[in-house]
Amino acid sequence: MEPDPQTLTQFHILPQPTYVDSLRFLPPLSAFDRHIAVASFNSDTSTPTLTLNSITPPTPTTPPTLTPQSSFTPSSRITSLKTTQTPQQNPLIAASTATGSVHILFPNPVDGSFESEVSVPDNVLHLGRITCLDLLESGLECVSVGEDGRVNVISVGDSGLDYRRVVDGKGLVSYSAVRWASPMEFATGGLGNCVQWWDLRRGGAPVSQFKGNWGQGATSGIIHSIDIHPSRKHTCLAGGSNGNVFAWDLRRPQQPIVLSGVDNGETATCISESDVWEVQYDTFMSASDHAKLSSIGVLPAMICSEDGMLAVIKQGEEPIELLAENCAINCFDIDRHNPSDVICGLEWESIALLTRA
To answer: Do residues 152 and 143 lie in contact, with contact meaning Cβ atoms separated by under 8 Å?
Structure first.
């Protein structure tokens, strides 16, 4: 399905030579440059690659292009990718892998090359796959979670990476998503549609927990993605199995606000019936959205799904469908410096670039 022309002003699909695992906009290296970090995997050679690409904007007669500036080969396939800026306003990239390593890369602001890299080797932080990591906005610390039930906080310093283990679940629990809320707080998600809130000032255990009971009593779902808005850190946005998207408010921890799906008889429009792979708060708003911002219970959210949906969900309104593809949309990112722009990674080895009106 073609995108709604009233929603999008530009839409381009760029075929790629390899499978796109994840992608992120990079904070600007300079005033006139835009870059995208892309984690990809060559299934023919079993080679993972992290590439930094510059974006050439489209013209009325030519499509946009992605030009590789530099590349890095991690220890194994990348499972999670995040970008931010250091306190010195330098961009930073963090990637985790399927064999338990974490890599932090520092792009050169002049030519986009990877100026330096520090890492924690395989099977030090986690035994096996790291399912997700997240970077603090300052870039000084990241938190990682894995299928082994471990939660680690990694500090980025001049001499390399140090880490401390918050908890070791010894495989009795499994985490699939994590997101910082503040330098001392973060949320995790995992099996059973479970969301937990952690406070590093209060020991190595969750301080609050919600376990969803979705879809007529089924509790086998998984939380795939979490987001927390910087101005409303008490509200956690989560997306997972069977098209479920909800907001978890710490002030009412056992009363989730269902945005898509069904929970204990409470029904919301279900934009997708398959796995929601990623959720992010959508910072792109119209003039009418800004006018009613103070009265909005849950800020607008963007989701992508296994059945090829990219959509914006607003509480109490019909979802806005941006894309409906014939393949899974595995990941997306909204440009925080220009939120009208969105990039997506499609299962059919391609990247979609969207610009909203």
So the answer is: yes
